[in-house]
Amino acid sequence: MFGPTAPAAHAxxxxxxxxxxxxxxxxxxPKWVDDKERTFVVTVKSDQVPTYDAMPGQVPGEHVVMVTxxxxxxxxxxxxxxxxxxxxxxxxxxxxxxxxxxxxQSAKDEPLITVSxxxxxxxxxxxWQNPGSRGRQxxxxxxxxxxxxFIDANLKTIPAKEGRAIVGHSMGGFGAFHYAEDRxxxxxxxxxxxxxxxxxxxxLRAAVVGGGVxxxxxxxxxxxxxxxxxxxxxxxxxxxxxxxAQHVEKLRGMGVAMYxxxxxxxxxxxxxxxxxYGAHRTAVxxxxxxxxxxxxxxxxxxxxxxxxxxxxxxxxxxxxxxxADMNDYVKLIMKRLQHP
Length: 340
Prior knowledge:
By secondary structure, this protein is of the alpha/beta class. The chain has a single domain, classed as Alpha/Beta hydrolase fold, catalytic domain (Rossmann fold, 3-Layer(aba) Sandwich), CATH 3.40.50.1820. Helix content is 28%, strand content 16%. It contains seven helices and nine strands, in the order E-E-E-E-H-E-H-E-H-E-H-H-E-H-E-H. Strands 1-2-3-5-4-6-7-8-9 form a nine-stranded mixed beta sheet, sandwiched between helices. Helix 1 packs across helix 7. It is globular and about 55 Å long.
């Protein structure tokens, strides 16, 4: 006689295979980050950002892109999915554990692909004015003209505005609004989690310049005029042109959402409190300009965080706050995006 048959072991499914294209060369084919087989990383080289100021563990000439696919995703099937581009903050990396959590938890029951591209420790999601010896630092071109069509060519996406949204945290919040305003034909929805949205604000200018010399933003350091030129009048034209808060008219017809605390108790974690206070100030300015322009928007101003999420105290880069932001934002965009 034969005993009970043991359950079959889980058969590993290979992640999608990627082909070179759009100025990107695949250095390392996709690899699942864990046995859940929801999230994989693919590594590429770009002729628009051939090297950059790398964070610890990064290779300066290589860009990791992290992708989370819906449960049951099958690259051979006929189903196509919308894509959310999620831009990380200063001093972070695209494949951090919390970025994976944000994507997997917020879209666990949604037919949504989430893509988190490398933005450098202090890349600021812009084509730099004065990159110096680094060579080209064309982050905007890299993301909008290379990564987006590269993802559409290699995954089962809905390759149109109706199937695409963008969001970011801190520096990435600026990047999301900046990209949406520069290329509104690409996105149906834009969001910011504690983003720096007003480049005319002196606190944000100080954060951009200061971030270029902080060791936790990647090395080597960036000169004050590297990204947007000199931040002083009358030499600050690029700062003003790239400032999302003053160009909200370009968002007309797009879904718009912002999330921010106010820093909470300033004596508790004062650095994170001040950063959030500064980001909040830029969100308030942006909201006022959106209101004046008659553009609908959602602004979740959660103050000290006590009513927003357990463990959120209104600080900058606080996991419970950001996960709640992402959960809410994904629900919003899925009401508008074309999807199965």
